[in-house]
Amino acid sequence: MSKNKPIEIKELNSNQAPHGILLLIGGHENKGESSAKGTPKGGKHPMEILKRFISLTEIDTPVIEVVTSASSNGDASFKDYEKVFGALKIKEIGHIHHDKRCDVLQADLSDRLEKADAIFFSGGDQLKLTSIYGGTPFLAKLKERYVNSNLVLAGTSAGAMAFSTPMIYAGSKELQQIAGEVKITTGLEFLKDVCIDTHFVDRTRFIRMGQVIATNPSSIGIGLEEDTAMIIRDGKNGEVIGSGVVIIMEGFEITESNILDYGSGDRISIHNLKVHILGKGSFYPIPKSHPAQI
To answer: Of 52, 118, 160, 257, whose CB count within 10 A is highest?
Structure first.
């Protein structure tokens, strides 16, 4: 059992709009390449998303923590971000990595979490993030800071997917068309009634998101293309940045689906699924009838 003092957590009001900002990144964000992946006509956007991550703090020299626990090679992942953030003149860059739940339960990271102006979750396996951090004082402290301070909390690829609930953790390109074959669980719940998927266009994940929304028609689906991101302010107001598009799915008007035919091997069918395609500069308010909140 840990002998460390417990992390002190302020009481959270579930109806309070978060003061912090979320940055949801679709993966493979530009890290200094001459042009972003998929940018039309060779347009250049070097480090656009990562620069925005830093500028959202509104601090000249913010303190950043990079969480690489989703990765199977945390050291290599951290070195990549240490290099790019260093190139952006960031001097204080911390590394947080856990491979076992018992390690985070025994660690006292309260001072580092309190000091950080921005926290960045790298990619890897989103189920690793939820199984390690769910229900821990570490996660509770992150949520307290997100709600009560101006913390900027970013995630790329699996790091972004873990912020949502419901959260996809399995559903391959081959299986996504079969009713009931997309696996979902509870995410870290920085956004509720919102499912986030990444590499959305590049890995043809449209149908698997459709399955999630058919299963949870009160939820919003946010599908992020690579080198594309959505900024979420006040827990509900989204802004698209980056070189690609964000695809939004709404299930409120679904009239029928065969999602209940799981186990039959039938292909999924959904009627009246509503879809928005949003490019850079577009805004999307998450419907107030289903607010994203802690």
So the answer is: 160
